[in-house]
Amino acid sequence: MKLSIAIATFNEQDTIARCIESVKDIAYEIILVDGSSTDQTVSIAKKLGAKVLVTDNPSIFHINKQKAIDHCRGDWILQLDADEVVTKELSEEIQKIINPQPFDAQGKPTTHNPQPNNGYWIPRKNYFLGRWLSKGGQYPDYTLRLYRRGKGRLPCKSVHEQAEVEGKVGYLINPLLHYPYPNFSHYLEHFHRYTAILSDEFASEKLPITIITFVQYIITKPIWWFLSTFIRHKGFYDGYPGFVFSFFSAFRFPTAYIKFLRSYKRTK
Fold first, then answer.
1. Is the dihedral of CA 217, 162, 45, 173 positive or negative?
2. C-alpha–C-alpha distance, residues 156 and 162, integer Å
3. Predicted confidence (pLDDT) per residue in 161-180, tens digit
4. d(Cα 72, Cα 70) in Å, to the nearest integer?
5. Which of 123, 144, 178 is the C-terminal boundary of a domain?
């Protein structure tokens, strides 16, 4: 079975080489859709053998991810972000999954699965402010990234959505490594972009502006989210990085709601 790697990028020159290097030994092809990067992302990817398509950079980044998926021709597709790394252990597990052996070590036929999986959830480890997050709902951070070609696709409606896979799905054991934020300022840039997208979602969904929604997004949701991630899911075990992650995860609700109110007033 042939494995295609699908990646979408925008100004990822500091991470894309590490990502591609981690999968080049198991990939039949690496399809990269770039949102018109202004750095060296495209040239680096081409030098490492990726097939690159340059297009625009939509706010919902999953649109370009889906374009990469659509261009894949392998039997299976592994969709990656440029700041992710596939470990040797995960590579070996993926190869065993997509190329099952008909016989075991003793030469006996393996059990045939009458309903083979069309996709797999992969546990993900997130590196944040100098350490791997182990609590706060951040590990295992399962993400649906491996699927048979034609059986999985992205809805392209939300920044944090998962793929939709037709048929049965399973779970892998070895984690995907995620290095999303090289520093805190980079994290804040993403925070402002994601809250702007969430604000746009409020507008498209015609979220009513009432005292109820005000209390819900300014007070109730952020408090509930912080207590859930930092206390219930033991984010405090991750120390200061765990606190910062829980705080800003909760703070996205009032931030996005205030941006929504401002944009609403501008249209009046």
1. positive
2. 9
3. 899 999 999 999 999 999 99
4. 6
5. 178
Residue-wise pLDDT for 53-86, tens only, equals: 999 999 889 999 999 999 999 999 999 999 999 9
Beta carbons within 8 Å of 23's beta carbon, 6+ residues apart? 5, 30, 78, 80, 86, 91
Residues 95 and 19 in one domain: yes
The residue segments making up the domain with residue 134 are 3-178
Strands of the chain, DSSP E:
3-9, 29-34, 51-54, 76-81, 84-86, 119-122, 124-128, 131-132, 143-148, 152-153, 164-165, 169-171, 176-178
Shared domain for 149 and 223, answered yes or no, is no
Residues in CB range of 187: below 8 A, 6 or more apart: 128, 180, 181, 248
Quick one: 201 and 72 in the same domain? no
Asked if residue 109 has pLDDT above 80, the reply is no
**Three-state DSSP class for 201?**
helix
Q: Which of 178, 199, 226 represents a domain boundary (last residue)?
A: 178
Quick one: tokens of 133? 């997050």
